[in-house]
Design goal:
Strand order of the largest sheet: 10-11-9-8-7-6-5-2-12
Domain Radical SAM core: 39-272
Bound molecules: iron/sulfur cluster
Structural class: alpha/beta
Strand content: 15-25%
Pfam families: Radical_SAM
Radius of gyration: 21 Å
Number of domains: 2
Shape: globular
Organism: Nocardia aurea
Protein name: Heme chaperone HemW
Largest sheet: 9 strands, mixed
């Protein structure tokens, strides 16, 4: 058992991107996208298309999405996505080669779209943006009930290399407790349909820390997932966040206090079980089967290369500005933002975002590298930023070392220890800049 007395709370902030969207603000005046991308390298970009629709709102979810899509809304959304793609592709210009090294459809639930709509989505990526979907890694998120044979057929035929299924738990009562009602039989059937395609990489998402979950029931979910020999498994700690289904029902302070030790224990059990079953740990959440096939060439570096996000929840990254649209979690606000997006005709300017100066770029690189199990090369870091991270962030890295969270990986490598990886969500915020912290603290959740 891990002693938590002298340590910070382990589950504070899942840093999957820095800075978080709650640090974005309206950009005034709104910069032209063509200006933002002028002079940027466009030879190794990532393309992300966001579909903000789900059949249900899971109790733990604070992603930008809405339940259902009445009155042809998905069609209008794809119309707007096409308009945005045309504007962005024109803004990228043709003086420099534009090449997408990978692509992803995320959400929400991209497979909420019907087969014909998924064809349209792939056409936007391929024919408007120019991504060669069959030649690069293409990842798509799905839910069990929307992973139908015809939709999977379209995705496989268009070059999907990775299908990620949000399962969360194979125990029906736990799924209900996480406000994601689904039956195990339906989950197993969806997994069978995915394995019937020739999509090479299956990812299964599981959650620990659900009300009523025990070591035995967690093991049962892990083994049910392992029975499919998925190439990847993500293990997520459950969070209670503002304005989510669970956030409305539970006192977050009391809940988190009771959960910390339980979640740490489930994390260790899950990690140890997957390592024993032939998986390697890529980050706190991600595990990859040791003999998983490669997804094809992918020379994209998430820490430094640019990203084009299309759709009203997607972010885009240039080296100097991160931008997106307005952000909310509460249903009425999300619906209003989607309605504004579908009515938009001029996509030539960025509306919300944050300027990324040299200091923020360095923090971002450090965070996104340090939170990977492999860590990063100090020499490469010095080549990019002109200094050793242990000089620039001596206080932060010093306190990680004191807590035993850094591995002795030699002088040229900074890497977390197993204990440090377990506390990934506690150390992330320590590297946020004062300005980003202040912006996040001032953000009004809505
Ligand atoms: S967790 Fe996934 S399926 Fe559930 S509401 Fe959020 S985006 Fe939709």
């Amino acid at each position: 058992m891990i002693d938590t007395v002298a340590l910070p709370r382990p589950y504070q902030n899942y840093v999957y991107a820095y800075p978080h969207k709650t640090a974005y603000r309206p950009l005034t005046p709104r910069p032209a996208i063509a200006d933002l991308w002028s002079g940027e390298s466009t030879s190794t970009l990532s393309l992300y298309l966001h579909i903000p629709f789900c059949e249900v709102r899971c109790g733990f979810c604070n992603l930008f999405t809405r339940v259902g899509a009445p009155d042809g809304l998905t069609g209008r959304y794809l119309d707007a996505l096409t308009r945005q793609a045309e504007a962005v592709r024109a803004a990228l210009g043709d003086t420099e080669p534009v090449r997408f090294a990978n692509a992803a459809f995320g959400g929400g639930t991209p497979t909420f779209l019907e087969a014909g709509e998924l064809t349209r989505l792939c056409d936007i990526a391929e024919h408007v943006m120019g991504a060669d979907l069959r030649a690069v890694p293409l990842s798509v998120e799905a839910s069990p009930s929307t992973a139908t044979a015809d939709r999977l057929g379209v995705l496989a035929e268009r070059g999907t290399t990775r299908l990620s299924l949000g399962v969360q738990s194979f125990i029906d009562e736990e799924a209900r407790a996480a406000v994601r009602p689904q039956r195990r039989a339906d989950v197993e059937a969806a997994l069978g349909r995915i394995r019937d395609t020739d999509i090479p990489v299956l990812n299964i998402d599981l959650i620990y820390g659900i009300d009523g979950q025990t070591a035995a029931s967690w093991r049962l979910s892990l083994d049910a997932a392992l029975a499919w020999r998925p190439e990847e498994i993500y293990l997520y700690p459950l969070y209670v966040r503002p304005l989510t289904g669970l956030g409305r029902n539970v006192d977050p302070v009391a809940a988190e206090h009771d959960w910390d030790e339980q979640r740490l224990r489930r994390y260790e059990e899950g990690r140890d079980h997957l390592l024993a079953e032939g998986y390697t740990q890529v980050s706190m959440r991600m595990f990859r089967r040791l003999d998983a096939p490669p997804q094809g060439p992918d020379d994209y570096a998430c820490q430094t290369d640019g990203m084009i996000g299309l759709g009203c929840g997607a972010r885009s990254y240039t080296s100097g500005v991160h931008y997106s649209f307005d952000y909310a979690v509460a249903p009425r606000e999300v619906r209003a933002i989607i309605d504004t997006y579908t009515a938009t005709t001029d996509f030539t300017r960025a509306a919300y975002g944050r300027v990324i100066d040299g200091d923020e770029a360095e923090r971002r690189y450090l965070l996104q590298s340090l939170l990977q199990a492999d860590g990063f090369s100090v020499a490469e870091y010095r080549g990019l930023f002109g200094r050793d991270p242990r000089d620039g962030f001596s206080t932060e890295l010093g306190s990680l070392a004191e807590r035993g969270w850094l591995d002795d990986a030699g002088s040229d490598r900074l890497r977390l220890s197993p204990r440090g990886l377990a506390y990934s969500d506690a150390m992330g915020p320590e590297f946020f800049s004062p300005a980003v912290r202040a912006a996040m603290a001032a953000y009004e959740h809505r």
